[in-house]
Amino acid sequence: MNPKTLPLPSESHPEVTAFFDEATNTISYVVRDPASQACAIVDSVMDIDYAAGRISFEHADRIIDHVRMRGLEVAWLIETHVHADHLSAAPYLQQKLGGRIGIGAGIVKVQETFGKVFNEGTEFQRDGSQFDRLFSDGERYRIGSMEAFAMHTPGHTPACMTHVVGDAAFVGDTLFMPDGGTARADFPGGDARTLYRSTRRILSLPERTRLFMCHDYGPGGREIRWETTVAEQRTNNIHVHDGASEDAFVRMRTERDATLSMPRLILPSLQVNMRAGHLPPADDDGRIFLKVPIDAL
């Protein structure tokens, strides 16, 4: 989908409630249709004590409490991409609240890549069938009376999608707040040049469009923030402001990424998230294990 042919955001102004997870610096969202009780949940978090091998659902339970207290009806559980820094709670939320789990159609590339990394057998399907909906570029869907559309914005991962709902866009890891710049592009399937072009697609949306980040790390010690606008990003983003060239971005991103260590939760996150938030199948004794491939990343 060419930036010049982007669907225009509708005039709706969804109510957006953010839930910050301090352990992973992730922001999850409940996106409510102001004309009905319909909502979507974007980028949920399942808690994990990695050292102890224990999972829990405190973060997801906060979202459940919010939805139930307001009498909301969950239509969608959206994953902007296969996260490498936190585990998705989508199946838990679906069990409690309903809704359909959706991700970009590029998930099949991620599953093929990491199915090999984790030496998954033939029982691991690499066709995205673990999800209820695979969104293609420009595909439209509804949250109550609101029309939303999915925009393919790869570069960080092949499956990254920006979801535009009325005057709000949920950008995943493609962009950070203006003083944070952009996400890394050195994971398998990532590409700095592709990432730059994806940021320009997002910044081709109307300047008033509200942009909601998946992560914030408070650069320079500032308080955590997660909402900005296209206009603010085009003016102030330290990596992709208007006038920042593609070649300069690729050089910067490549050099910077070479200095970064792997995210702390990348190994459990990828194994779970490529399964739509489900844990790997139990063994014959009913025990569940996560793998640690050596020198694979």
Automatic annotation (TrEMBL):
Pfam families: Lactamase_B
Highest taxon above the source species: Bacteria
Tagged with keyword Hydrolase: yes
Biological process, per Gene Ontology: glutathione metabolic process; hydrogen sulfide metabolic process
GO molecular function: hydrolase activity; metal ion binding; sulfur dioxygenase activity
Assigned keywords, A-Z: Hydrolase, Metal-binding
Segments forming domain Metallo-beta-lactamase: 25-215
Family matches, as Gene3D superfamilies: Ribonuclease Z/Hydroxyacylglutathione hydrolase-like (3.60.15.10)
Keyword Hydrolase part of the UniProt annotation: yes
PANTHER family in alphabetical order: PERSULFIDE DIOXYGENASE ETHE1, PERSULFIDE DIOXYGENASE ETHE1, MITOCHONDRIAL
Protein name: MBL fold metallo-hydrolase
Organism expressing this protein natively: Pseudoxanthomonas mexicana
